[in-house]
Amino acid sequence: MTTGNDTRCRLPKMDRLLDWPELAPLAHAYGRRQLRSAARTVLEDLRRQLPQHPATDFSAECIVARIQKLLLRQQESGLQRIINGSGVVLHTNLGRSPLPAAARRVLLDTAWGYSNLEFDLTRGERGERSAHVEELLCELTGAEAALVVNNNAAAVLLCLCALSAEREVIVSRGELVEIGGSFRIPDVMRQSGALLVEVGTTNRTHPQDYRQTVSDRTALLLKVHASNFAQVGFTAETSTAELVTIGREVAIPVMVDAGSGCLLDLEPFGIAGEATVQSYVRQGADLVTFSGDKLLGGPQAGLIVGRRNLVQRLKSHPLLRALRIDKLTLAALQETLRLYRDERKAVDQIPTLRMLSMPFGEVTRQARRMVRRLRATLPPAITLRLHDGTSAPGGGSLPLVQLPTRLIEVTVSSLSAHRLEELLRETTPPVIGRIKNDRFLLDVRTMTTDDIPLLAGSLRQALEISHG
Ligand SMILES: *Cc1c(COP(=O)(O)O)cnc(C)c1O
């Protein structure tokens, strides 16, 4: 017999294992079915490891500990809070915008109780769910009417379905964009039944191109924000104002898919070139659609503002029922929009705006504070060093903007940057950073003071896991 076979015999049989009294508390806490499945996984893992470690002694204590750890990890997996040290402010994979604290109370009240979601308290009769934010949206953007749906993809789809099915929509060739994942303007258009008519060339589209293409089959002139890419060099774009002039000449509505939905001029914060929703409305766009969770800094939602007669057509379209906004989202959106009534409040209290607008001096102070507080609690095996770097707005917005930032390089005794990155994805909460030049880096811009104790805990856990 080989050594491998010998050690294999030291592993208990599954049925015997499940009868161990040490496992009774786990069966009680997690249920027998989950315990059995975890025990099987652990036994299989150990059996696989045996040939490499023939001398390892798998004591009962060790086996129970492994099962317990696995059950705990399963418990903590699933959707959960994480620490974003990536420096990407609007990270679609990390949930885009963290909500302002001001949304917490209404969000909880709406979740745990009944609400006037679709009930008009003044008249005592059925109301509209969008109504809670419509007036606010009109006030903030200067539009006549507003509507909210599940996300901006839904907003664009609804507009196209309601206003242009079976008819033509004219779009510049340079604006037929793909916004990550599965949102591509030509595909959405096909889905809606609208017929896409491309005008211009990839880099240049002139007002004349639209004028020559308009016909009695045209339902809509559509302008799409380039979002995640930028054109430089020999380019020409027909502005919203020019498109509106053409639209008025031929009595065809102009729709703008504004993408990020910026409600605040970001130029004072050194972020140039992002037009606000208000500016599209002012230039005469008949409909503007935008996201709730990109530059606006609220929950996932699709916001539509524009002319009353067009919004009315959207409201009576049967698709609206399938795209409607959820009450929790609506609660968070309402509170986020309210903050915009005072721009200073918005910048100060909406995390996305705060992170984007944070000047380098403040990032530096925050970095020093974080490092000082972390060092005070971390064991000497974990070392921290500050570097200069840049953060990205992300979320398909502002592709050319790089924000100067401070990065915390984390080193844990003998671990490589890659191993550390891997371990920190397993901790509670997981920590997402980036690796550059073999260094594991955490960007201070996308972390908050609240993250410090959690981050310290996760770093300690990573060190523990690495010790086995
Ligand atoms: C992000 C984006 C969308 C999709 O918005 P979601 O809210 O993610 O559905 C559509 N159009 C443009 C131009 C965008 O930037």
From TrEMBL:
Cofactor(s) the protein requires to work: pyridoxal 5'-phosphate
Reactions catalysed: L-seryl-tRNA(Sec) + selenophosphate + H(+) = L-selenocysteinyl-tRNA(Sec) + phosphate
Record EC number: 2.9.1.1
Keywords in alphabetical order: Cytoplasm, Protein biosynthesis, Pyridoxal phosphate, Selenium, Transferase
InterPro entries per the UniProt record, alphabetical: PyrdxlP-dep_Trfase, PyrdxlP-dep_Trfase_major, SelA-like, SelA_trans, SelA_trans_N_dom
Annotated L-seryl-tRNA selenium transferase N-terminal domain residues: 10-47
Subcellular location: Cytoplasm
GO MF terms held by the record: L-seryl-tRNA(Sec) selenium transferase activity
Major place of residence: cytoplasm
Keyword Metal-binding (UniProt): no
Pathway stated in the Swiss-Prot or TrEMBL entry: Aminoacyl-tRNA biosynthesis; selenocysteinyl-tRNA(Sec) biosynthesis; selenocysteinyl-tRNA(Sec) from L-seryl-tRNA(Sec) (bacterial route): step 1/1
N6-(pyridoxal phosphate)lysine, modified sites: 294
Protein family: Belongs to the SelA family.
Function: Converts seryl-tRNA(Sec) to selenocysteinyl-tRNA(Sec) required for selenoprotein biosynthesis.
NCBIfam families linked to this entry: selA
Protein name: L-seryl-tRNA(Sec) selenium transferase
